[in-house]
Amino acid sequence: MVLRHSSTLFFSSSSSSPLFFTKINSSRSFTSIKMERGEDNGAKKVFVAGATGKTGKRIVEQLLSRGFAVKAGVRDLDKAKSSFKPDPSLHIVRADVTEGPEKLAEAIGDDSQAVICASGFRPGFDLFAPWKVDNLGTVNLVDACRKQGVNRFVLISSILVNGAAMGQILNPAYIFLNVFGLTLVAKLQAEKYIKKSGINYTIVRPGGLKNDPPSGNLVMEPEDTLSSGSISRDQVAEVAVEALLNEESSFKVVEIVARPDAPKLSYKDLFASVKAHIN
Ligand SMILES: NC(=O)c1ccc[n+]([C@@H]2O[C@H](COP(=O)([O-])OP(=O)(O)OC[C@H]3O[C@@H](n4cnc5c(N)ncnc54)[C@H](OP(=O)(O)O)[C@@H]3O)[C@@H](O)[C@H]2O)c1
Q1: Which of 27, 64, 196, 239 is most deeply buried (CB count within 10 A of its CB)?
Q2: Pocket of ligand 1 from Cβ distances under 6 Å
Q3: What pLDDT is attached to residue 41?
């Protein structure tokens, strides 16, 4: 069901999801809003792009364990079936972010209330893959959200995407990640598109990703602050899910790493410590 609506922000509370951004319709960018409850059981539904990736899979698992329904966007349905345990709240759909906004809008459907983008190019022979996936693919997802009136977007990006402006042009990580297909430049372009889209976003920029369990407390900084450090993918997934649960994460870019000596802070305080963007 789609309803016409003017430009208003709504937050809602429920026992299954304490706080979740349900819908916005900016008169500038949107013509419709979505139903507040996407599932028969009332769980909020989140579409995850790149759901079979190492971070994407963790995001799916954490969303399910926090009571969300999940639509897992994947390129390979067979791979996905063997990646996830059967769960009545999990729906797997085919979604290649390079195939354009129309197909992605179909995959997202009219029952998703937020999108988390955890896709990233897979190294191969196509030198343009980072541009196609990390820039244009994310842009396609944003456009698909507009088509479906989805107004909450969480992007897993990276520290150093704006390394040149930070004076980090000679940082080996900046050079390495750009030398093959301008990966960081591609991600920065996608970030700029999201910021201009009018959609409520949280851009999460992690340091180097590790498969190990968390080994330190989370450090959260404003954009263009961190130029080194690492973090467990489990923590990155947790930040993505917490972004949906914390109003303070709206319209923010947060850079994250983990450090053993960092104080343990609540997500509310961490997100509140970073300023929102006002266009
Ligand atoms: N590695 C690092 O240290 C690091 C640091 C900072 C940020 N990041 C970023 O963090 C994100 C997650 O990283 P990760 O290492 O956990 O990811 P990953 O394991 O490499 O997974 C990437 C995911 O993207 C999917 N994908 C690739 N091309 C796609 C397409 N055309 N359409 C839809 N999905 C596509 C892959 O699908 P398949 O499973 O089908 O291949 C996979 O699910 C990425 O954006 C990455 O650039 C990484």
Answers
A1: 239
A2: 49-50, 52-56, 75-76, 96-98, 118-122, 133, 137, 156, 158, 206, 208-209, 233
A3: 62
